[in-house]
Amino acid sequence: MVSTLLVFVIPVVYFITLGMCCRPIEYTLSDGQCCPLCNEGTFVSRDCTVQYGTKCSSCEPGTFMNKPNGLRKCFSCTSCASDQGLFAKQTCTTTSDTVCDVLSGYFCKALADNMGCSWAEKHSGCAAGQRIKEPGTSRNDTVCEACQPGHFSTDGVNCTPWTECSKIQKKVKEGSSSSDVVCGSASRNHFILTLPCSLCFCTIMGLFIKGLCLCD
Question: pTM, whole model, 2 decimals?
Answer without folding.
Answer: 0.65
